[in-house]
Amino acid sequence: MGLSFQLASAAALLVVAGSTEPIPVQSVLFKQPLEVEHGGVHNIHVEYQGDVDGELTVAYGPCNSGSAQAVHHIVGSTYVGSHHRAARHLDHHERRPTRFVWVTPSTLPAGCLHAFLEGQHVGRSAEIMTKHRRVRRQATFASVADPMGPWFDGVAYLQQKQPNETFVASTKNKRFGILGAGMAGLTTGLMLDSVGVRNWKILESSDRLGGRMLTSYLNGTRPEEGQYHEMGPMRFPYEITDPDTNETFPINDQKMVYQVADVLNKINEGNEELQVKFISWIQSSPNTPVSTYKRRPDGTFPGKTEVATNPDYAEPVVYSNETAAAQAQQALDDFKALTPERIKFYATDLFRAHKQAVEQGLFDWSEVEYLRKVIGTPLNTTDEVTPSQVVWPMWEYETVYFLANKWNTIQGGLSRMPEAFRPIVQDRIQFDSKVFSVQHNSQNNTLSVSYRPRGSNPREVTPTTEQFDYVFNSVPFNLLKFWELPRYSSLMRRAIDRTVFGGAVKVAIQYKTRFWEHLKHPILGGCGRVNIPLVGQICYPSWDINATGPGTMMASYIPDYDATVACSMSDDEHIAYVQRAMVAIHGQVAEDNWTGNWARHCWEHDENHAGAFALPIVPQQQLYLPAFFHTEFNTVFIGEHTSYTHSWVFSALESAARGTVQLLLDLGLVDEAKKVNEEWMARWIQL
Fold first, then answer.
1. Pairing, β 99-103 against β 41-48
2. Neighbouring C-beta atoms of residue 661, cutoff 10 Å
3. Does the pLDDT value for residue 20 go beyond 70?
4. CA separation for the pair 687, 685 (Å, rounded)
5. Which residues touch 280 (CB under 8 Å, ≥6 apart)?
6. Which CATH architecture has domain 152-209+430-499+616-686?
7. What is the DSSP string of 617-637?
8. 462 CB contacts (<8 Å, ≥6 apart)?
9. What is the domain partition of the chain in residue ranges?
10. Is there a shared CATH topology between the 152-209+430-499+616-686 domain and the 215-288+504-605 domain?
């Protein structure tokens, strides 16, 4: 009989009060589960024999229980079959759900599941094995969770709902809308597919995949020609080597990027153009230019090694009060406590590190606030030690990332990864569809999503409206501010209205040759930073080192406030400014190799994003995070801005895993939620 337990003769009949038809005693057959964990969440699978109509109650208790009054606890109740109150189950065959949700108590004696129809016993499972929760080697929610932490506890999530609200599991034929084809939206579709939930559609406002994962291929070249650079994310930190012990350890959270690539490569096996391949990224190189006012005899900028070894280039920082500045810097170092042990902790277990950062108070203070209000550092010294405009918390995950000794990037550009999703989404995506409204329909508990063609005149074009049962919304909050939306909770509405987003602008320039690799002090990959205003970071290509022919470099990358100023320039003005800086840094050779081919992207001017990444200030991180773990009006919010790290590809992927599990639990599809949790490295999710 497999998993089906027919523990009493189906021929034994029972007449239910108010019914004229006999009901088989075992008219409800329990198929699963065979064993459960204390304090866990599980699906109950049943089959029906005969017409089962009326109020169905599932309970757990001693196997010899014959009434609902003699059980350990009630799992849940609902109306099924021809009963007029079973209309909510129209999606189920004959309005009889076959899957239910069981949130088991923290202590559970041995026993059986029982089914009662209008109070009469109509089904009993075999004895169910109970066990205590597995203690995983990695951190679980139980061991690291904090009310201010971001870990998603599926058990607690369901416990906070009314029992009968989550008792009946939905079918998989609900219609799901995914707003946005960035990495969060694309990965959500992939994860839904992985558990057989395929009735989804992506609405994307632009004409491409990837969102802020954007590679510019200059002068109409193809990826394999190497004439590209990244307008969005550029690299993935991979591992750190402790300089004192020579121990090398991975940056574990970034592994999710490689997992997604592996899954895509398997799906696209045999199609070389869609394979995602990683190559080394050179983050640090000896001769990259540095921020200094000293110059070589020929007027060009000295490189990193020269400045470090030649006293003629030494340029010590001068403070108005050297003692106060040293004390302030030491106070910040002591508070952050980024010891070698803490660095490894951040790299290998970011989830615990976040909890510790919350407990330590790192989210309560910016550097400026800490120095001024806790240490009492003079105002001028504070501004000398740390920029006064920096008001985000001291959550130092990025500091740890940039200690990485090994980095990777994607061969042919990071846009190759979202492009690898194309076969998956090609029949379930609509491009150039600019959403402006999401409205909840209380009559049938659905969502109406309205959009217009991108570039159309809203005063002249009639919008299109589609109906969805649920929506994954990955659109940045700074765009949602202007949408027509349901009346979300106060916390969610404030998160939408007030979360701070940073801008960024990047300029890539193609040159006739890779001249920087043939200078007296050759620059072979790497990123440098100069103190020419509005130039910021310069990154030289890590691929095709010493190749002949043209080459493309990231000539300028500036974020935040400076980006706003740079983006106020016209294209021609800005490119001319950056090119003059390249000549100042490298010499006349940069002008001699000028081709006139360039790419510029101002993220705050991008109508599909209106910003580069979330930049929550104190105290937004710990205030708004809990809101994202609640589904409001059938909407789950995903995207890097809803994660506990920001601006990295991993942040978007993490949000997709959390959001997918969250909605599967809303639907009662616990088995599927567990599968996503197990397959997608979602160690921060507890089920």
1. antiparallel
2. 27
3. no
4. 7
5. 406, 407, 408, 409, 542
6. 3-Layer(bba) Sandwich (3.50)
7. PTTHHHHHHHHHTS-BTTEEE
8. none
9. 13-134, 152-209+430-499+616-686, 215-288+504-605, 317-403
10. no
Render pLDDT for 418-429 as a digit per residue (tens, 0 to 9): 999 999 999 999
Question: Would you call 203 helix, strand, or coil by DSSP?
Answer: strand
Q: Return the beta strands (E) in 469-550 as ranges.
A: 470-473, 501-502, 504-511, 526-529, 537-540
pLDDT digits over 450-508, tens only? Answer: 999 999 999 999 999 999 999 999 999 999 999 999 999 999 999 999 999 999 999 99
pLDDT cut 90: percent of the chain above it: 81
Would strands 429-430 and 200-203 be described as parallel, antiparallel, or unpaired?
parallel
Residues with Cβ within 8 Å of 373's Cβ and at least 6 positions away in sequence, in order, are: 365
Measuring CA to CA, how many Å separate 403 from each of 338, 344, 357, 531?
Answer: 11, 10, 19, 22
CATH class of 215-288+504-605: alpha beta
Task: Determine the Cα–Cα distance for residues 601 and 218; give it in Å rounded to an integer.
Answer: 13
| 3-state helix/strand/coil string of 435-464 | EEEEEEECCCCEEEEEEEECCCCCCCCCCE
On the question of pLDDT at 39 being above 90, the answer is no
Q: What is the mean pLDDT of the chain?
A: 91
562 conformational bin, left if phi > 0, alpha if psi -120 to 50, beta if neither: alpha
- Residue 434 reports pLDDT greater than 80: yes
Q: Quick one: tokens of 458?
A: 């809203």
Q: Which of 133, 123, 116, 121 minimizes the C-alpha distance to 35?
A: 133
Is the pLDDT at 84 greater than 80, yes or no?
yes
Angstrom distance (rounded) from CA 447 to CA 466: 8
Please give the backbone phi and psi of residue 184, each rounded to the nearest 5 degrees, phi first: -65, -45
Instruction: State the sign of the Cα–Cα–Cα–Cα dihedral 543, 551, 613, 192.
Output: negative
Q: What is the pLDDT of residues 319-343, one digit of tens each?
A: 999 999 999 999 999 999 999 999 9
Neighbours of 214 (CB within 10 A): 23
Token couple for 670: 């616990």
Tell me which of 2.60.40.10, 1.25.40.80, 3.40.50.1460, 2.60.40.2840 is the CATH number of domain 13-134: 2.60.40.2840
